Here is the input.
Amino acid sequence: MLLLLHVVLIFPLKDIKRSLANLEGLNKKNMPSFLIISIVGILACVVLDLWQRFLFLFFKIPPSNWAMVGRWLLLFLKSMLWVQRDLSEQSPVKNELYIGWGFHYAVAILYALLFFFLSKEGVVTLSLRDGVVFGIISVIVPWFFFMPAMGAGIFANKTPNPILACVLALIAHTIFGGTLGAFFNVFYYQT
Here is the structure.
């Protein structure tokens, strides 16, 4: 992710525009769906990560700690206990940061896959509006699964500021979902 941010900051804007223009011809007729789904999931995840960087730069709200997520995943795979208490007091695990980042992007692709399949079933359309709704609904995952799994409790009730944690999760998932819908719309409904 940091490499991607460095590339975006180093390359001139015209080169980025040219690269994006080359993507315009990609659609479901000439590109496998899973590749598009993966690209959309990754792009939406990049937008989410940029949002977290914005919050940190301007409001000093720290971004997600992907090392802790990697540690949680590795400890879960080792112990098969999905709730890890005192995760920050556990010894660091080799490559936890890389594993955390990889898990973060893998989950983003899975969300994109779910959104795409819901569109195929007629539950949602590949649109910004339905993406926002999907994002809002998807916040149940961190509130009821991931926050408790990381030892923060349901609705982050074991953290110093649970309301802030929950609101940030809601905003992040809303941005992510809206971005999913918008990117799917670009890739699948080009005129």
Remarks:
- The radius of gyration is 18 Å.
- The chain has eight helices and no strands.
- Helices lie at 2-10, 13-22, 33-59, 66-79, 96-120, 128-138, 140-149, 162-188.
